[in-house]
Amino acid sequence: MIRNSAAEMAAKLVAGETTSVALTQAHLDRIAAVDTDVHAFLYVDTEGALAQAAAVDAKRAKGEKLSPLAGVPLALKDVMAQKGVPTTCGSKILEGWRPPYDSTVVANLKKNDIVILGKTNMDEFAMGSSTENSAYGPTHNPWDLSRIPGGSGGGSSAALAAFEAPLAIGTDTGGSIRQPAAVTGTVGVKPTYGGVSRFGLVAFSSSLDQAGPCARTVLDTALLHEAIAGHDPKDATSINAPVPQVVAAAKSGDVKGMKIGVVKELNGDGYQPGVRARFEESLELLAKAGAEIVEVSAPNFEYALAAYYLIAPSECSSNLARFDAMRYGLRVGDIDGASAESVMNLTREVGFGKEVKRRIILGTYALSSGYYDAYYGSAQKVRTLITQDFIKAFEKADVLVSPTCPTTAFKIGEKANDPLAMYLNDIATIPVNMAGIGGMSLPSGLADEDGLPVGFQIMSPVMKDERMYSVGAALEAALLTQWGAPLLDKAPLLGGAR
Amino acid sequence: MDCYWKWADSQLGLNLIRLKPMSSLSRDDVAKLAGLARIEMSEEELVNLSQEFTVILDAVARVQEVAGADVEPTSHPLPLRNVFRADVVVPSLTPEEALSGAPAQEEQRFRVPQILGEE
Amino acid sequence: MTLSYDDVVAKYEPVLGLEVHVELNTNSKMFCGCSTVFGAEPNTQTCPVCLALPGALPVVNEKAIESTIKIGLALNCSIAPFSRFARKNYFYPDMPKNFQISQYDEPICVDGYVDVEIETDEGPKKFRVEVERVHMEEDTGKSLHVGGATGRIHGAEYSLLDYNRAGIPLVEIVTKIVPGTGKYAPEVAKAYVAELRDILRALGVSDVKMEQGSLRCDANVSLRLIGAEKLGTRSETKNVNSLRSVERAVRGEMIRHAELLNAGGRVVQETRHFQEDTGLTRSGRSKEQAEDYRYFPEPDLVPVAPDAAWIEELRATLPERPSIRRKRLQEVWAVPDKEMAAMINADVLDIVEATVLLGSDPTKARSWWLGEISRIANDKNIAIANLAITPQDVAEIVALVNAGELTDKLARQVVEGVIAGEGQPADVVAKRGIKVVNDDGALMAAIEKVCAEQTETAEKVRNGHLPAAGALIGAVMKETKGQADAARVRELLLGHLGQATS
Ligand SMILES: [Mg+2]
Ligand SMILES: [Zn+2]
């Protein structure tokens, strides 16, 4: 049952073949069996999940009209505030903090009766591409436990790949949904910026952060997308327009006559051969399905990484200033005679990990008087150029595509001491965040040289998210025919249960 | 009056916390930044970060290659304007909820160590 | 050796700069729905947004934007077609986010002015104070310092924070430098803040209570030798909490600077704190190392771009400018300059106008509020507006006097009674049994009694020496406990003593 898609589980619930309590318990059992190895979860809310499941079952028994995913369990990235449930963002500084409020995403999940199993591991404050930056230890990739599950949302992607949950919530600031999806053989979508409320998403970089759906199939992500998206008056940057019809698009999977633009700059040197091979193969399948493949150029994408590593740290240096030991979270050094300032300094020294400090210092520098124009200001101009590149490219193509990341999952510890090498992971995902458009990663097979999953990225214009779902569904169907079974069936067994 | 008096301040030779020019940061620069960011740092951390920054700043300084005067900066991905809420009171948290995460509290207030500096 | 003020202004020219923070009187806070009501129990008006809980986001209060645009229009500013919020980054425990959402290089309103008029040796003179900008920001929480002897920050062992005020909408009004005021700098500063307060009150956008901190003034003062071009070093005196203090603070700083400069020293650029008791300022944080606030556009908010239609809609709601209103009232009421100035000084213009609108004649309304009632307010040491007497009460009392039902003297007793909380004028009249003696019989009895007692004086009047009648009338009034109408007494008395009345 746990290897079904969310849509299949929902169908079984509707048909009365199982109950939400049984389904939830099955996932809790799976977590108990494999999570000591995978470490996808930071907190498992056994009681809360079972109570929620029982409530959905009761509603169903009464014949109430329920939403499509009602009763299906989900893993929540620990960056989302959930009332009364520990929310750490993978940081020591928030250890033990229980929010007195629900994020809008959580409120929407509850409204849709989606059962929240617990909170998943992540790079501290979503800063990283490997989940090694979690203060609570790394998460392991179910395909190879010695490898990273991507980041920052490695807990969510690993939970999906290990069948600990059929659905998960991620957040994507520079690729934190898509890159973990790519390296775990799962599906992840970063919706258009403003498509899903950021209220209650603990901010890393406000102008780039976006929450989105993660699952094992394109249709499942679409179902979850519609459950969490929509205008939120509590988020001034939320788009006040109808949610794109992504479920319909995922169901039809029709790409006939669609123009698919291959971004010249997001392929080639630096991309692993197996990654490039799977990408080319997928393009052929899409062409066979009736799409027209064109090449587009985005000359300014080469500056995206540099601009990102100025904008995100700048915003984070300000966003993370609130963690100061005064109102919540960790407090260190509060001894007789200590000043508030020294307590702040000590708490932030102890409470933040190395990467977080690195970015806060970098951002503080980039915003400081005399350097603003050269760094932050210039980065904002690059952002304009990248957006213009996308506008031009979308004049030639309905969606754009690229490999999601240059390589497959690397070994835990391999890049821990080389921040620049780590940053390169996000080279193909970052432009999407800079322009606020939509992006999806879905599995396109395994790299020949290492047998690890490869991700295929689809990008769609602002509020045209349905397009990436059409293309994703078409490619998924073609690949499934070719493989004969879901890619994750090739993943090694964990904890025995299959 | 930060804005307005800026020119007057510059006339008077008042220095903002100035750092050395681009692309490299000394140990002391990092110490100043850590002070601004309220992060205590060991000597080792200061030295390590200043070395890392030499590499990182080289990489990010590339943005200046294409950022000409004719390019408008984009601070936000969406061209939204005038998003407001009506001036309506909604229920606050209870004081218990508000103080639920407080490391220390007293008389329904957040208790914090002595505040030095400006009165 | 303390310099005299005259010595200071003989040698130096003061340059002013004024920064006023105004708390708006919106129902909810600037970026969240928490109530703004003053004086609530600690931390009962807080939420994830104004406590800066992780994940919370701000949303701008529309009314606050409208109020700010109105203020800009009333101060003759241009309203920016595009403005933005910025983050001002610095750590302080009473500021939950450790940045203040403020405005930096893109404020809502720019380039305005306020004209003020002050009395000079050469008569009334007008000064124009130019306004650099009007922008929006948010207030901080309040800290209570525990363990120190004085409740002040120095020597405190720890502090207790209440975030009820955190996030209250603030408007900051910044002037350009104000040169050319010469020796009148303190008066110009006071007149500017007073005018600003009147404008804001007329707009209805703030309570403008300096003593409660809903209007706070920071005064920047520098001196330069007369004729010199280069500005001197300024000091910034914070949170001056009354009009009188504005004047005293500027004057005090001018003298302090001059003493330093004359002694060959230099003025330190710093923040200073005004002390009500001594009228002097005390050194605060030195600005030798200016804070680096690392301003950048607030990414959680979108720009404010008011269109012309919205601005014109707001312009149409602007009330009459206070200075114009004062001129109009002076003309309509036919009040001499001096009296008008007295009313403005005593801050009774609104209340007098309200009384006149309720039917009182201007002279009587003015004389009650400026005279008897002001005196009682002074005695009790409370603001006139806080006395338990309303324009309605005064208008009624004036009407009773006009109808002959009260004498001026009796009316004073009624005013006293109303202020003492005995009810409305009619209630006081009834409870105290105050009434004019209109019964001619009773009056005649008193007149006969007085004339019999003071035969000599009565004889003088009988012989045509009318000024002597005053003493008799006084005695009759005393006899009737002041409840008689003096004019009627005079009439009856003169008749009684054989003198025709005209
Ligand atoms: Mg300010
Ligand atoms: Zn609030």
TrEMBL record, chain C:
GO terms of biological process kind: glutaminyl-tRNAGln biosynthesis via transamidation; translation
Reactions accelerated catalytically: L-glutamyl-tRNA(Gln) + L-glutamine + ATP + H2O = L-glutaminyl-tRNA(Gln) + L-glutamate + ADP + phosphate + H(+); L-aspartyl-tRNA(Asn) + L-glutamine + ATP + H2O = L-asparaginyl-tRNA(Asn) + L-glutamate + ADP + phosphate + 2 H(+)
GO terms assigned for molecular function: asparaginyl-tRNA synthase (glutamine-hydrolyzing) activity; ATP binding; glutaminyl-tRNA synthase (glutamine-hydrolyzing) activity; transferase activity
Record's subunit section: Heterotrimer of A, B and C subunits.
Its biological purpose: Allows the formation of correctly charged Asn-tRNA(Asn) or Gln-tRNA(Gln) through the transamidation of misacylated Asp-tRNA(Asn) or Glu-tRNA(Gln) in organisms which lack either or both of asparaginyl-tRNA or glutaminyl-tRNA synthetases. The reaction takes place in the presence of glutamine and ATP through an activated phospho-Asp-tRNA(Asn) or phospho-Glu-tRNA(Gln).
Keywords for the protein's UniProt record, in alphabetical order: ATP-binding, Ligase, Nucleotide-binding, Protein biosynthesis, Transferase
Family statement drawn from the similarity comment of this UniProt entry: Belongs to the GatB/GatE family. GatB subfamily.
Record-linked SMART domains: GatB_Yqey (SM00845)
Database matches in Gene3D superfamilies: 1.10.10.410
UniProt name for this protein: Aspartyl/glutamyl-tRNA(Asn/Gln) amidotransferase subunit B
The keyword Oxidoreductase belongs to this UniProt entry's keyword annotation: no
Domain Asn/Gln amidotransferase: 350-497
EC primary class: ligase
Pfam family for this entry, one: GatB_N
Organism: Actinobacteria bacterium BACL15 MAG-120619-bin91
Record InterPro entries: Asn/Gln-tRNA_amidoTrfase_suB/E (IPR017959), Asn/Gln-tRNA_Trfase_suB/E_cat (IPR006075), Asn/Gln_amidotransferase (IPR018027), Asn/Gln_tRNA_amidoTrase-B-like (IPR003789), GatB (IPR004413), GatB_Yqey_C_2 (IPR023168), Gln_synth/guanido_kin_cat_dom (IPR014746)
EC number(s) on file: 6.3.5.-
